[in-house]
Structure formats: structure tokens, C-alpha cells
Write a structure and sequence with these properties.
Blueprint: E1 2-10, E2 14-16, E3 21-23, E4 28-29, E5 34-37, E6 40-41, E7 59-63, H1 67-73, H2 78-81, E8 91-93, E9 106-109, E10 112-119, H3 125-130, H4 135-142, E11 147-153, E12 155-157, E13 162-167, H5 175-183, H6 189-196, H7 203-215, H8 222-226
Parallel strand pairs: 7-8
Antiparallel strand pairs: 1-4, 1-8, 1-13, 2-3, 5-6, 5-12, 7-11, 9-10, 9-13, 10-11
Helix pairs in contact: 6-7
Length: 229
């Protein structure tokens, strides 16, 4: 499985939205080759290091395939959706979505080797980015979240390089299925037990599955989706 990388994007911390909260969600395409280190692209930044960035979320990938669906749903925000970068992604691709990507997948991107660590958990910054009060909720409900990767081998990448599948240790666990369990079938105990045991899934998502099993309850999403609390 091989798809082209349409754009490589980085961003700096800047004020976001009416409250001017610091964020690096606005990312722009970079010309030429960009080094990928253990925590992501050289020149990229994150304002909130507690919830963004780090080895388990080194790069965010988002499919440009979703643009037409978002344009249909959000006719008021066409400009932002016309080009890569609308969702704060670092790599933009076409021909690959959450239904075709699995937990733990190893992908060669340029000369770097990346591993899928988790799907994205959308947060309130998307609301401010799009000027749509429930944008984060829409992204979560749609399953069009994109995904994060960890860096197994550092290297460099450029627009036009190929993203090529190297290995798939968990073919039964597509990100689409993972998202279905987390956000729809939220207390499917058998599925949650499998998720908690997926060694290539990020530690935070495995812990989340384990907490649901332990408490038989779903966590409060309001702080993440709406910035409350």
C-alpha cells in the first residue's frame, strides 16, 4: 500500500480565536525536505505540550480525502478546507483514511519510519479554528479524525514522497473500528479489553480503555470538546 504525501506542514505558536489562546494548529506547507526527529518535524511547535506533541504524538496525519465531505457539511468555511493544513496536520495525504489504517501500522515516509500510535482526540481548538462552536464534536462523531504516529527511525520527508506500508501487526484494529468503540459502542467490554492489551497503541489510550473497564463508565468529554472545566 502506497500513497503520495501531498504536503508537509509545520506551525508556530500564535493567538487563536476570540480569546487569543496560544496554539500552533495553523500550519503551513514547507518546501523541500524536512527532518523528522523523535518528536516530529523540525520547525514545528505545540503550545500545549501536556496534550499535544511528544513521542506518542510526534506527527499528525490527516486525509485530504475528507475535504469534500467537510465542504458539504460546512459551506460557510470553504477557504480553510481548500488546501492541506485545515486540521493542523503535519502530513497531508490522499487515498488513505481511518478505515484503511490500523493501530501499530509501520509506514515509511521519505527516509523516516513511522508507527501509528492512536487516532486523534479532537479538542476545542478546532472550534476556534473553524469558527464552528461544535466542530470538535463533529470531527469526533464523523470518525474523520486523522491519526498520530510515533517515530521509529528518524529521517527526512518532502511533499511528493511516498507513504508506504511496511508492516501491519494488528490488521483487525483499524482506526475506524477503534473510534467506533471509543465514541459509539463505548462500554463494549470485550473490545475494550482487546484495546487495553494492544501494545502498539499509545499508553494513554490503553489506560483509557482500562479505566472504562474498571469503572463501567465513560469519561466526561466536555473539557476536551468545549474547553470547559
Amino acid at each position: 500500500m502506497r500513497v503520495a504525501i501531498d504536503a508537509v506542514l509545520t506551525g508556530r505558536v500564535a493567538p487563536l480565536g476570540p480569546q487569543a489562546k496560544p496554539s500552533a494548529i495553523a500550519k503551513s506547507p514547507v518546501a523541500g525536505r524536512v527532518r523528522i526527529g523523535p518528536e516530529g518535524l523540525e520547525g514545528d511547535a505545540q503550545a500545549d505540550r501536556r496534550n499535544h506533541g511528544g513521542p506518542e504524538k510526534a506527527l499528525h496525519l490527516y486525509p485530504l480525502d475528507h475535504a469534500s465531505a467537510w465542504r458539504a457539511e460546512l459551506p460557510e468555511a470553504p477557504d480553510l478546507l481548500e488546501a492541506p493544513g485545515a486540521f493542523g496536520e503535519n502530513l497531508s495525504t490522499r487515498g488513505l483514511t481511518e478505515a484503511g489504517v490500523c493501530v501499530g501500522d509501520l509506514w515509511r515516509a521519505g527516509t523516516a519510519l513511522l508507527q501509528v500510535s492512536q487516532a486523534r482526540q479532537p479538542c476545542w481548538k478546532l472550534n476556534a479554528r473553524f469558527g464552528v462552536p461544535d466542530m470538535a464534536q463533529r470531527v469526533q462523531a464523523s470518525g474523520r479524525t486523522g491519526w498520530y504516529v510515533r517515530v521509529i527511525e528518524t529521517g527526512a520527508v518532502a511533499a511528493g514522497d511516498v507513504l508506504a506500508l511496511v508492516d501491519r501487526p494488528h490488521p483487525d484494529w483499524t482506526l475506524a473500528r477503534l473510534l467506533q468503540v471509543f465514541y459509539v459502542d463505548r462500554l463494549d467490554r470485550a473490545a475494550l479489553a482487546e484495546i487495553a492489551a494492544l501494545e502498539t497503541l499509545s499508553a494513554s489510550w490503553r489506560a483509557l480503555a482500562a479505566r472504562r473497564l474498571d469503572r463501567s463508565a465513560v469519561e466526561d468529554w466536555a473539557p476536551r470538546l468545549r474547553g470547559e472545566g
